[in-house]
Design brief:
By secondary structure, the chain is mainly alpha-helical. It has 4 helices and no strands. The chain folds into 2 domains: 46 residues; 39 residues, no CATH class. It is 74% helix and 0% strand. The mean pLDDT is 87.
C-alpha cells in the first residue's frame, strides 16, 4: 500500500471511530459486532504455510502432467475394489 493510500485509510478509520463513538442505537452497535465477528472468523480460516505448500505441490504435479482425470481414477478404483462396487 502506498503512503498516500495508508494515510487515507487511517483518516477513514478515524472518521468511523468518531462516528461510532456517538452512536447510541443498540441495533447499529450489534451490526458492527457481527461485522467484527465475521471478519475475525474469516481471518482464522486462512490457510497455514503447510497447507499453501501442499496446494503448490499439487499444482506443480498437475502442471508437470503427473495427474489423472476423474474418469481415470474411477476406472482404477473399480478395478482395485471390484468386489465392493457394483
Amino acid at each position: 500500500m502506498q503512503p498516500e493510500q495508508t494515510s487515507d485509510l487511517q483518516a477513514e478509520k478515524l472518521d468511523i471511530i468518531k462516528w461510532l463513538a456517538g452512536v447510541n442505537e443498540h441495533r447499529i452497535i450489534k451490526q458492527f459486532m457481527l461485522l467484527k465477528q465475521t471478519n475475525e472468523e474469516s481471518v482464522s480460516l486462512q490457510l497455514s504455510a503447510n497447507e499453501k505448500k501442499a496446494i503448490d505441490v499439487g499444482i506443480a504435479s498437475i502442471e508437470s502432467g503427473r495427474s489423472m482425470t476423474h474418469d481415470e481414477v474411477k476406472q482404477m478404483t473399480r478395478k482395485k475394489f471390484s468386489g465392493l462396487l457394483k
